[in-house]
Amino acid sequence: MGIVRVTIAAFQTSIFLVVCGLGLKTDLGDVLFLFQRRSLLARSLLAMNVAMPLLAMLITIAFDLPVPVQVALLFMALSPVPSLLPPRQDRAGGTSGYACGLLFIEAFLSILLVPVTVMLLAGIFHRDLAVPLPLVIKVLLMTVLLPLGAGMLIRRFARTHADRLKELVSAAGSFLLFVSGALLLLLTLPVVIHMIGNGTVLALAGFVIGGMVIGHWAGGPEHADRTTLALVTAARHPGVAISISGAAFPAQRKAIAAVVVLYLLTKVVILIPYNAWRKRTRPLVHNRNLQSDSVA
Predict the structure, then answer these.
(1) Where are the beta strands (DSSP E) in 27-112?
(2) How many domains does the chain have?
(3) pLDDT tens for each residue of 220-238
(4) Has residue 268 been placed in a domain?
(5) What's the pTM?
(6) Which of 1, 24, 158, 194 is the most exposed place for a label (fewest CB within 10 A)?
(7) CATH code at 48?
(8) Domain encompassing residue 235
(9) Torsion angle in degrees (nearest 10) through CA of 227, 231, 232, 237
(10) Are 11 and 242 in contact (CB under 8 A)?
Protein backbone atom coordinates (compact mmCIF):
# COMPACT_ATOMS: atom_id res chain seq x y z
CA MET A 1 0.00 0.00 0.00
CA GLY A 2 1.42 3.38 -1.04
CA ILE A 3 1.96 6.25 1.36
CA VAL A 4 -0.91 8.21 -0.18
CA ARG A 5 -3.33 5.34 0.52
CA VAL A 6 -2.00 4.97 4.06
CA THR A 7 -2.47 8.69 4.64
CA ILE A 8 -6.00 8.58 3.24
CA ALA A 9 -6.74 5.61 5.54
CA ALA A 10 -5.43 7.61 8.52
CA PHE A 11 -7.55 10.56 7.39
CA GLN A 12 -10.65 8.34 7.32
CA THR A 13 -9.78 6.86 10.73
CA SER A 14 -9.61 10.36 12.17
CA ILE A 15 -13.08 11.06 10.78
CA PHE A 16 -14.34 7.82 12.39
CA LEU A 17 -13.05 9.02 15.76
CA VAL A 18 -14.47 12.52 15.35
CA VAL A 19 -17.90 11.16 14.39
CA CYS A 20 -17.80 8.74 17.32
CA GLY A 21 -16.98 11.68 19.60
CA LEU A 22 -19.98 13.50 18.15
CA GLY A 23 -22.16 10.45 18.84
CA LEU A 24 -21.02 10.44 22.47
CA LYS A 25 -22.55 13.93 22.75
CA THR A 26 -25.72 13.19 20.76
CA ASP A 27 -29.13 12.11 22.03
CA LEU A 28 -31.82 10.37 19.99
CA GLY A 29 -33.85 13.58 19.99
CA ASP A 30 -31.12 15.27 17.96
CA VAL A 31 -31.39 12.66 15.21
CA LEU A 32 -35.20 12.95 15.16
CA PHE A 33 -35.09 16.76 15.10
CA LEU A 34 -35.85 17.13 11.38
CA PHE A 35 -38.66 14.57 11.31
CA GLN A 36 -40.61 16.93 13.55
CA ARG A 37 -40.10 19.80 11.07
CA ARG A 38 -40.99 18.36 7.69
CA SER A 39 -40.98 21.65 5.78
CA LEU A 40 -37.42 22.34 6.89
CA LEU A 41 -36.46 18.75 6.05
CA ALA A 42 -37.88 19.11 2.52
CA ARG A 43 -36.04 22.39 1.94
CA SER A 44 -32.82 20.92 3.29
CA LEU A 45 -32.97 17.88 1.01
CA LEU A 46 -33.77 20.02 -2.02
CA ALA A 47 -30.87 22.37 -1.28
CA MET A 48 -28.34 19.60 -0.70
CA ASN A 49 -29.43 16.90 -3.13
CA VAL A 50 -30.93 18.86 -6.03
CA ALA A 51 -29.54 22.39 -6.04
CA MET A 52 -25.94 21.45 -5.19
CA PRO A 53 -25.53 18.67 -7.78
CA LEU A 54 -26.98 21.06 -10.38
CA LEU A 55 -24.54 23.75 -9.26
CA ALA A 56 -21.64 21.29 -9.49
CA MET A 57 -22.68 20.33 -13.02
CA LEU A 58 -22.99 23.99 -14.06
CA ILE A 59 -19.51 24.69 -12.69
CA THR A 60 -17.99 21.76 -14.59
CA ILE A 61 -19.66 23.05 -17.77
CA ALA A 62 -18.65 26.68 -17.23
CA PHE A 63 -14.99 25.95 -16.39
CA ASP A 64 -12.54 23.94 -18.46
CA LEU A 65 -11.57 21.76 -15.51
CA PRO A 66 -9.42 18.61 -15.40
CA VAL A 67 -11.29 15.33 -14.99
CA PRO A 68 -10.27 14.83 -11.29
CA VAL A 69 -11.72 18.24 -10.42
CA GLN A 70 -15.00 17.52 -12.21
CA VAL A 71 -15.27 14.11 -10.55
CA ALA A 72 -14.46 15.47 -7.08
CA LEU A 73 -16.98 18.31 -7.42
CA LEU A 74 -19.81 16.01 -8.47
CA PHE A 75 -19.12 13.48 -5.72
CA MET A 76 -18.72 16.16 -3.07
CA ALA A 77 -22.11 17.55 -4.08
CA LEU A 78 -23.68 14.22 -3.10
CA SER A 79 -21.57 13.37 -0.04
CA PRO A 80 -23.27 13.60 3.38
CA VAL A 81 -22.91 16.36 5.93
CA PRO A 82 -19.37 16.54 7.34
CA SER A 83 -18.89 15.42 10.93
CA LEU A 84 -16.82 18.46 11.93
CA LEU A 85 -19.57 21.01 11.46
CA PRO A 86 -21.86 20.95 14.55
CA PRO A 87 -19.47 22.67 17.04
CA ARG A 88 -18.93 25.55 14.64
CA GLN A 89 -22.66 25.85 14.15
CA ASP A 90 -23.28 26.27 17.86
CA ARG A 91 -20.77 29.11 18.02
CA ALA A 92 -22.27 30.81 14.95
CA GLY A 93 -25.84 30.38 16.16
CA GLY A 94 -26.68 27.13 14.38
CA THR A 95 -28.30 23.97 15.73
CA SER A 96 -26.26 20.81 16.28
CA GLY A 97 -29.41 18.65 16.43
CA TYR A 98 -30.31 19.84 12.94
CA ALA A 99 -26.83 18.89 11.65
CA CYS A 100 -26.87 15.49 13.37
CA GLY A 101 -30.26 14.68 11.86
CA LEU A 102 -29.04 15.64 8.40
CA LEU A 103 -25.88 13.59 8.90
CA PHE A 104 -27.94 10.45 9.42
CA ILE A 105 -30.50 11.13 6.69
CA GLU A 106 -27.92 12.09 4.08
CA ALA A 107 -25.84 9.00 4.82
CA PHE A 108 -28.79 6.75 3.95
CA LEU A 109 -29.71 8.82 0.89
CA SER A 110 -26.14 8.58 -0.40
CA ILE A 111 -26.58 4.82 -0.78
CA LEU A 112 -29.07 5.64 -3.55
CA LEU A 113 -27.54 8.84 -4.88
CA VAL A 114 -23.93 7.70 -5.33
CA PRO A 115 -24.73 4.93 -7.85
CA VAL A 116 -26.83 7.47 -9.79
CA THR A 117 -23.82 9.80 -9.82
CA VAL A 118 -21.61 7.03 -11.17
CA MET A 119 -24.07 6.41 -13.99
CA LEU A 120 -24.15 10.14 -14.72
CA LEU A 121 -20.35 10.32 -14.84
CA ALA A 122 -20.22 7.28 -17.11
CA GLY A 123 -22.39 9.15 -19.59
CA ILE A 124 -20.47 12.41 -19.28
CA PHE A 125 -17.03 10.84 -19.73
CA HIS A 126 -18.17 8.09 -22.13
CA ARG A 127 -16.54 5.26 -20.23
CA ASP A 128 -17.54 2.21 -18.24
CA LEU A 129 -17.60 3.07 -14.55
CA ALA A 130 -18.79 1.03 -11.63
CA VAL A 131 -18.73 1.54 -7.89
CA PRO A 132 -20.09 -1.59 -6.19
CA LEU A 133 -23.00 -0.87 -3.87
CA PRO A 134 -21.31 -2.86 -1.04
CA LEU A 135 -18.38 -0.41 -1.24
CA VAL A 136 -20.73 2.57 -0.95
CA ILE A 137 -22.45 1.01 2.06
CA LYS A 138 -19.10 0.15 3.65
CA VAL A 139 -17.76 3.70 3.29
CA LEU A 140 -20.93 5.26 4.71
CA LEU A 141 -21.02 2.75 7.56
CA MET A 142 -17.40 3.35 8.51
CA THR A 143 -17.43 7.13 8.18
CA VAL A 144 -20.93 8.03 9.41
CA LEU A 145 -23.42 5.43 10.59
CA LEU A 146 -21.26 3.07 12.64
CA PRO A 147 -19.22 5.64 14.63
CA LEU A 148 -22.21 7.92 15.23
CA GLY A 149 -24.43 5.00 16.21
CA ALA A 150 -21.77 3.49 18.49
CA GLY A 151 -21.26 6.80 20.27
CA MET A 152 -24.99 7.30 20.72
CA LEU A 153 -25.45 3.78 22.09
CA ILE A 154 -22.71 4.35 24.67
CA ARG A 155 -24.36 7.64 25.63
CA ARG A 156 -27.76 5.96 25.89
CA PHE A 157 -26.70 3.07 28.11
CA ALA A 158 -23.56 4.41 29.83
CA ARG A 159 -23.93 8.17 29.95
CA THR A 160 -21.26 8.60 32.62
CA HIS A 161 -18.69 6.79 30.49
CA ALA A 162 -19.80 8.80 27.45
CA ASP A 163 -19.22 12.05 29.29
CA ARG A 164 -15.72 10.90 30.23
CA LEU A 165 -14.86 9.61 26.75
CA LYS A 166 -16.36 12.26 24.49
CA GLU A 167 -13.59 14.85 24.83
CA LEU A 168 -10.81 12.25 24.68
CA VAL A 169 -12.17 10.59 21.53
CA SER A 170 -12.87 13.94 19.86
CA ALA A 171 -9.39 15.23 20.73
CA ALA A 172 -7.72 12.06 19.41
CA GLY A 173 -9.72 12.28 16.19
CA SER A 174 -8.97 15.98 15.73
CA PHE A 175 -5.25 15.43 16.30
CA LEU A 176 -5.10 12.55 13.81
CA LEU A 177 -7.17 14.60 11.36
CA PHE A 178 -4.70 17.48 11.58
CA VAL A 179 -1.66 15.23 11.15
CA SER A 180 -3.09 13.14 8.31
CA GLY A 181 -4.57 16.22 6.62
CA ALA A 182 -1.23 18.04 6.76
CA LEU A 183 0.60 14.98 5.44
CA LEU A 184 -1.96 14.56 2.66
CA LEU A 185 -1.44 18.20 1.72
CA LEU A 186 2.33 17.69 1.58
CA LEU A 187 2.00 14.53 -0.52
CA THR A 188 -0.32 16.22 -2.99
CA LEU A 189 1.29 19.66 -2.85
CA PRO A 190 2.69 19.59 -6.42
CA VAL A 191 -0.77 18.72 -7.75
CA VAL A 192 -2.41 21.35 -5.53
CA ILE A 193 0.04 24.04 -6.71
CA HIS A 194 -0.62 23.10 -10.32
CA MET A 195 -4.38 23.41 -9.78
CA ILE A 196 -4.17 26.87 -8.21
CA GLY A 197 -3.62 28.56 -11.55
CA ASN A 198 -5.94 26.54 -13.80
CA GLY A 199 -9.34 27.71 -12.52
CA THR A 200 -9.78 24.98 -9.91
CA VAL A 201 -9.70 27.35 -6.91
CA LEU A 202 -12.20 29.66 -8.57
CA ALA A 203 -14.49 26.71 -9.31
CA LEU A 204 -14.21 25.41 -5.73
CA ALA A 205 -14.86 28.89 -4.35
CA GLY A 206 -17.96 29.11 -6.52
CA PHE A 207 -19.11 25.73 -5.18
CA VAL A 208 -18.67 26.82 -1.54
CA ILE A 209 -20.17 30.29 -1.96
CA GLY A 210 -23.05 28.92 -4.03
CA GLY A 211 -23.80 26.31 -1.38
CA MET A 212 -23.66 28.91 1.37
CA VAL A 213 -26.09 31.20 -0.47
CA ILE A 214 -28.47 28.34 -1.37
CA GLY A 215 -28.52 27.03 2.20
CA HIS A 216 -28.92 30.49 3.71
CA TRP A 217 -31.92 31.18 1.45
CA ALA A 218 -33.53 27.74 1.92
CA GLY A 219 -33.07 27.77 5.69
CA GLY A 220 -36.13 29.93 6.20
CA PRO A 221 -36.67 32.87 8.55
CA GLU A 222 -35.08 31.44 11.71
CA HIS A 223 -31.49 32.49 12.33
CA ALA A 224 -30.34 29.09 13.60
CA ASP A 225 -31.87 27.18 10.68
CA ARG A 226 -30.38 29.53 8.11
CA THR A 227 -26.94 29.32 9.66
CA THR A 228 -27.00 25.54 9.91
CA LEU A 229 -28.26 24.89 6.38
CA ALA A 230 -25.86 27.44 4.87
CA LEU A 231 -22.89 25.71 6.49
CA VAL A 232 -23.91 22.13 5.75
CA THR A 233 -24.86 22.91 2.15
CA ALA A 234 -21.48 24.53 1.51
CA ALA A 235 -19.60 21.66 3.17
CA ARG A 236 -19.26 17.99 2.29
CA HIS A 237 -17.87 14.87 3.99
CA PRO A 238 -14.25 14.59 2.72
CA GLY A 239 -13.85 10.90 3.60
CA VAL A 240 -16.85 9.83 1.55
CA ALA A 241 -15.86 12.02 -1.41
CA ILE A 242 -12.30 10.66 -1.52
CA SER A 243 -13.27 7.01 -1.01
CA ILE A 244 -16.10 6.77 -3.51
CA SER A 245 -14.64 8.95 -6.26
CA GLY A 246 -11.24 7.26 -5.84
CA ALA A 247 -12.89 3.87 -6.32
CA ALA A 248 -14.64 5.06 -9.50
CA PHE A 249 -11.43 6.61 -10.86
CA PRO A 250 -8.55 4.66 -9.26
CA ALA A 251 -5.93 6.10 -11.61
CA GLN A 252 -6.91 9.60 -10.47
CA ARG A 253 -7.00 8.83 -6.72
CA LYS A 254 -4.10 11.12 -5.78
CA ALA A 255 -5.36 13.98 -7.92
CA ILE A 256 -8.87 13.63 -6.48
CA ALA A 257 -7.43 13.68 -2.95
CA ALA A 258 -5.57 16.88 -3.88
CA VAL A 259 -8.83 18.47 -5.07
CA VAL A 260 -10.58 17.56 -1.81
CA VAL A 261 -7.68 19.00 0.24
CA LEU A 262 -7.80 22.20 -1.81
CA TYR A 263 -11.59 22.30 -1.34
CA LEU A 264 -11.21 22.00 2.45
CA LEU A 265 -8.72 24.88 2.52
CA THR A 266 -10.94 27.02 0.27
CA LYS A 267 -14.01 26.25 2.38
CA VAL A 268 -12.29 27.20 5.64
CA VAL A 269 -11.18 30.56 4.28
CA ILE A 270 -14.57 31.42 2.76
CA LEU A 271 -16.65 30.36 5.76
CA ILE A 272 -14.63 32.37 8.31
CA PRO A 273 -16.36 35.70 7.56
CA TYR A 274 -19.78 34.02 7.31
CA ASN A 275 -19.34 32.36 10.71
CA ALA A 276 -18.19 35.64 12.23
CA TRP A 277 -21.17 37.50 10.76
CA ARG A 278 -23.71 34.92 11.93
CA LYS A 279 -22.17 34.82 15.40
CA ARG A 280 -22.31 38.60 15.63
CA THR A 281 -25.92 38.83 14.43
CA ARG A 282 -27.46 35.85 16.22
CA PRO A 283 -30.52 36.74 18.33
CA LEU A 284 -30.10 37.62 21.99
CA VAL A 285 -32.57 34.87 22.89
CA HIS A 286 -30.17 32.30 21.40
CA ASN A 287 -27.30 33.77 23.41
CA ARG A 288 -29.34 33.55 26.62
CA ASN A 289 -30.19 29.90 25.83
CA LEU A 290 -26.52 29.09 25.36
CA GLN A 291 -25.68 30.77 28.67
CA SER A 292 -28.46 28.82 30.42
CA ASP A 293 -27.18 25.57 28.94
CA SER A 294 -23.64 26.30 30.11
CA VAL A 295 -24.86 27.06 33.65
CA ALA A 296 -26.93 23.86 33.71
Answers:
(1) none
(2) 1
(3) 888 888 888 898 888 887 7
(4) yes
(5) 0.79
(6) 1
(7) 1.20.1530.20
(8) 3-277
(9) -160
(10) yes
